[in-house]
Design a protein that fits this description.
alpha/beta; seven-stranded parallel beta sheet; three-stranded mixed beta sheet; 11 helices; 18% strand; globular; binds nicotinamide-adenine-dinucleotide; binds uridine-5'-diphosphate
Length: 334
């Protein structure tokens, strides 16, 4: 199958590209490198022995996108391109809506023009807002609490309208829980930012000694040890979930939503212990005040994905931490 990945040079897209290439599919990466770098291509080639087609362009360049879809006889699109930092989205809402929402409108137009009507969209558990019950299933009410989350909600609504308007469309929105870990080679992983916001990359930097200690945001939540509980899912499990969703879609026209999580929650302190064990390094931490906007616990009901796709996460927390640590060490040694 010929598959185009918008944002395919990013953290999740690059892992999905490897999975698709290794399964014998043709992959076209379309990315403006806003949050990734050209060197990813060589890393994908080193792992798979194949260099995918790469088009450096913005998804809002509708004509370029249409031409790419036509020239490469693309049959389906995986749509990863987007800005994803929750805090930044509150400071730059217009930029977030322009990139994520306008970008998706452009993609829908290009796909219509090129008559490509299969789409897998990267959504997020953030669309559920504050959990009213746990685990979160796909029927949970939707209520995003920040511009990033609202951009995902707007996109889901647009895609649903499109699927309803024309029975030839098949669209699935995958709601990721907390992607973590890296490719087992240590060649691909989450690109580090100056000071990471997310727990896993932050702990990795503490373990190397680049950052002094982890601030644990709150230990007075109604959870077993008082710290926040999340559903961490290995990025390679996520990648396999995308491939399963892509082929399931071929038999299922219309609009669909699906959680990609493990169903298992881990607390911040459990994560610290797991990372220290995997890395063989201490992860010093101190208890800090709660972070604004955080919920006590958030984890998936993964049953629909198991039932519909026959997919479930296979890799455990130890593998997530070990692979993230391998990638971190590889970054240090170059
Ligand atoms: P990432 O930033 O590593 O990858 C996104 C890629 O999209 C980058 O390579 C970036 O350069 C590209 N991009 C951004 N805007 C673009 C545009 N206008 N035109 C072309 N390319 C553009 O992020 P990621 O972690 O791989 O996330 C991929 C998708 O999954 C995003 O849509 C994100 O919102 C969603 N998601 C991520 C997480 C997570 O924790 N990583 C959780 C839930 C959902
Ligand atoms: N967290 C923390 N310290 C950090 C970063 C995160 O204690 O430096 C906690 C956060 O409060 C949450 C969990 O780790 O309970 C996961 O946070 P992350 O930002 O990775 O993902 P989120 O679920 O918020 O998207």
């Amino acid at each position: 199958m010929n598959v185009l990945l918008t944002g395919g040079m990013g953290y999740i897209g690059s892992h999905v590209a490897v999975t698709l290439l290794q399964a014998g599919h043709r992959v076209i990466l379309y990315d403006n490198l806003r949050n990734s770098e050209a060197g990813i291509l060589a890393r994908i080639a080193k792992i798979t022995g194949q260099t995918p087609v790469f088009i450096q362009a913005d998804i809002r360049a509708t004509k370029t996108l249409t031409d790419t879809l036509q020239q490469h006889t693309v049959e389906a699109v995986l749509h990863f391109a987007g800005l994803k930092a929750v805090g930044e989205s509150a400071q730059k809402p217009v930029e977030y809506y322009a990139n994520n929402v306008e970008g998706t409108i452009s993609l829908m137009q290009a796909m219509q023009e090129a008559e490509v009507r299969s789409l897998v969209f990267s959504s997020s558990a953030t669309v559920y807002g504050e959990p009213r019950y746990l685990p979160l299933d796909e029927a949970h009410p939707l209520a995003a609490t920040n511009p990033y989350g609202r951009s995902k909600l707007h996109i889901e609504e647009m895609l649903r309208d499109l699927s309803i308007s024309d029975p030839l469309w098949r669209v699935i929105s995958l709601r990721y829980f907390n992607p973590a870990g890296a490719h087992e080679s240590g060649l691909l992983g989450e690109k580090p930012v100056a000071v990471p916001n997310n727990l896993m990359p932050y702990m990795a930097r503490v373990a190397t000694g680049e950052l002094k200690e982890l601030s644990v945001f709150g230990n007075d939540y109604p959870t077993p040890d008082g710290t926040g509980v999340r559903d961490y899912i290995h990025v390679m499990d996520l990648a396999e979930g995308h491939m399963a969703a892509l082929f399931w879609l071929a038999e299922h026209p219309g609009w669909h939503t699906l959680n990609l999580g493990t169903g298992q929650g881990y607390s911040v302190l459990e994560m610290v212990a797991a990372f220290a064990k995997a890395s063989g390094r201490a992860v010093p931490y101190r208890i800090a005040p709660r972070r604004k906007g955080d919920v006590a616990a958030c984890y998936a009901d993964p049953e629909k994905a198991r039932r519909e796709l026959g997919w479930q996460a296979r890799r455990d927390l130890a593998e997530m931490c070990a692979s993230a640590w391998k990638f971190q060490k590889q970054l240090q040694t170059g």
